[in-house]
């Protein structure tokens, strides 16, 4: 199973994000846009995990979640990885508040004990809105930074739980399902 640990948003919040990003979708950019049902923040990508490992993974997530109380973080600001001119991913930013950073670090340690290597890249929490397609060419994203600057969206997300998610890949993009949900501060 292809798994990751993430934060899911309530349906109303996903709809607000989707509406806020409409101006991006209307630009006819060479981007495969993510369906609002799939909006989430990835905390830790695990990759292929054997079924017999799932209980250990869930126990590690429970240990990490137990020491973090529910919290709120801000979302807003649009951007792209690796650059605006040649993006692979178009995203909405998520504030890396102290609680989120600590939760991420606790997950890294707990999942490291379960045999998953630590992430070497710095943590840039975000919601993936779309993935650029190769067919765009060099100038396809020329005006993207101006579009980002014109978009105004700020909101707050209340985080009460984290989820172990399964990624189902297909030609139409990924579809996600919840394997288990763990409440924060559950000690």
Tags for this model:
single chain; about 190 residues; alpha+beta; Cyclic Phosphodiesterase, Chain: A; 5-stranded antiparallel β-sheet; 9 strands; about 25% helix; about 35% strand
SSE layout and pairings?
Elements: E1 2-8, H1 11-20, H2 22-25, E2 31-33, E3 40-48, H3 54-66, E4 71-81, E5 89-94, H4 98-113, E6 126-132, H5 144-150, E7 154-159, E8 161-168, E9 175-183
Antiparallel strand pairs: 1-3, 1-8, 2-6, 4-5, 4-7, 5-6, 8-9
Helix pairs in contact: 3-4
Question: Can you describe what's shown?
Answer:
With 187 residues, this protein is α+β, with helices and mostly antiparallel strands. The protein has five helices and nine strands; from the N terminus they run βααββαββαβαβββ. It has helices at 11-20, 22-25, 54-66, 98-113, 144-150; strands at residues 2-8, 31-33, 40-48, 71-81, 89-94, 126-132, 154-159, 161-168, 175-183. Strands 2-6-5-4-7 form a five-stranded antiparallel β-sheet. Strands 3-1-8-9 form a four-stranded antiparallel β-sheet. Helix 3 packs antiparallel against helix 4. The mean pLDDT is 91.
